[in-house]
Amino acid sequence: MTTSDRSETDSATGASAICQRHADAPARWRCAFCDAFLCDACVSVRDIRERTVTVCKECGGRCERIGEEVAERVPEAVGEPVPTSLNLFTFPFQGDGLYILAAGTVVLGLVRTIALFSFAAWFLELVVTFYLATYWLKVIRFVAYDAEELPDWPSVEEDEIVANGLRFTVLVLACTLPSRIYMLQAGGWTGELDTSNPIGWLLTIAGVVYFPMGMLALAVLGDLTAAGPHIVLPAIARVGLAYLPVVGLVLGLIVVETILVALAGAVPLLGPFLSAAITLYLLVVAMTLLGDLYRRHRDAIGWDR
Ligand SMILES: [Zn+2]
Ligand SMILES: [Zn+2]
Predict the structure, then answer these.
(1) Residues whose CB falls within 8 Å of the CB of residue 36, separated by 6 or more in sequence, listed in order
(2) Using an 8 Å Cβ cutoff, are 33 and 61 in contact?
């Protein structure tokens, strides 16, 4: 079978596609997130309340059945969000989580140590930001689909680090630049931020409220356009007041992380490792919170068709 044959069958029904990771296994699933054709060994099936969701083991995205007739669909659960037993602060340590975080702390600590003496620190920072952003999105997606422990670190071949990093960067800029630019121009472009005008603060609040649901949209739907207002704002409206504590907690965790990292910077030698542990733990908790928001309000948010 040539490559072109294969892509033709793939795009038609996928009926004779082969698993991307096991050349001898027929693909029975397609990951809606990373587009991979997958065999049964490459997916995990999770019972989420009244229905079963099949997710890609690699990226945590939702998989659709391909090929032979799809079994009749279990009716979708509607109504009340179901309370969850997930504990935000201990979840990162479930299963292999502790080892994943420890390995990440060593690597990020080393990178931050090197950055102290490097003239290309900005480049290191960019690489770290893209890589961590990819991981944050992966954590949200895994928690959103009821994973029981943290996903593994992103792999350079599989996880589209540049694409995820760019999406994350655009979202962050969209949430922070309007207020910053407004405050700069109110300050007469002198480089001073004029914080006396309420419009600047309203823009800041808008960005803070938008960001968590924007991250969730990027994590679950993948596409940058999915983080656009036409998808994010209705989702915020549908979750309603239950969204506000999430915004507060995410903001709180990011602020605490920034303060503690700055304090850890003063610690000789171990500072970068201390700050790495703080960053990884607190931001993983923040991302778990977003995935958990999706778990509890999946039906209201309505992104899973
Ligand atoms: Zn996938
Ligand atoms: Zn496979």
Answers:
(1) 20, 21, 30, 42, 56, 58, 59
(2) yes
- Write down the pLDDT at residue 86: 82
User: Could you list which residues have their CB under 5 Å from ion ligand 2?
Assistant: 19, 21-22, 39, 41-42
In the predicted structure, residue 200 carries a pLDDT above the cut 60:
yes
Using 50, 70 and 90 to split pLDDT, how confident is the model at 305? low
What's the token pair of residue 288? 């778990």
Other Cβ atoms closer than 10 A to 274: 20
User: Could you give the C-alpha distances from 113 to 104, 118, 120, 271, in angstroms and in order?
Assistant: 14, 9, 13, 8
Query: Mean pLDDT across the stretch 152-170?
Result: 92
> Average pLDDT of 180-200?
90
**What are the DSSP calls for 60-119, one per residue?**
--BEEE-SSPPPPPPPPP-SSPPP----TTTGGGSTTHHHHHHHHHHHHHHHHHHHHH-T
CA dihedral 43, 37, 288, 85 (to 10 degrees): -30
The pTM score is 0.86
Ligand 2 center–CA 30 separation, angstroms: 11
CA distance 144 to 221: 12
Distance, CA of 258 to CA of 281 (rounded, Å): 13
Question: From the CA of 64, how far away is ligand 1's center (Å)?
Answer: 11
**Ligand positioned closest to the Cα atom of 64:** 1
